[in-house]
Structure formats: C-alpha cells, structure tokens
Amino acid sequence: YSLTYQVEEIERYCMENNLQLLHIYEDRGLSGATVDENGLTVEREGLQELLSDMAYQQVRRVIVLNTSRLW
C-alpha cells in the first residue's frame, strides 16, 4: 500500500467512526524492522516516535490499515 493510500483510508475510517486523528506517524521510503539474535532493531524514526509516545502513555489508540505495515 502506498503511504498516501494508507493515510486516506485511515482518515476516512476516523471520520466514519467519529475519531479525532491527532497525529500520523510515518516513515517515508522505509519499511520493516530488522530481527536478529539480539532482538528487534527499529531503524524507523516514525515507529520509534510511536513506541516512545506509547511508553509515556501519550497514545490511546493506534489505527493502521494493516498490521503488516508496522513491521
């Protein structure tokens, strides 16, 4: 899925479900994470920002078009 398509679909979902979209975390031109013997390595600034915000309980919901887009 293109980034534009994902954003449009998520915006539409939020409107249809009366959800306020406060922030979009994105990593343009990047995909996936690396898993090796030391665990998960995330080299995506947008995903790192999301994980940090979640750690500080600044995120109530995460909406993705498909969970495969996270990894």
TrEMBL record:
The record ties this protein, via InterPro entries, to: Resolv_N, Resolvase-like_N_sf
Domain Resolvase/invertase-type recombinase catalytic, chain residue ranges per copy: 1-71
Coiled-coil intervals: none
| PROSITE patterns per the UniProt record, alphabetical | RECOMBINASES_3
Q: Which GO terms describe its molecular function?
A: DNA binding; DNA strand exchange activity
| Pfam families membership | Resolvase
Protein name (Swiss-Prot/TrEMBL): Recombinase family protein
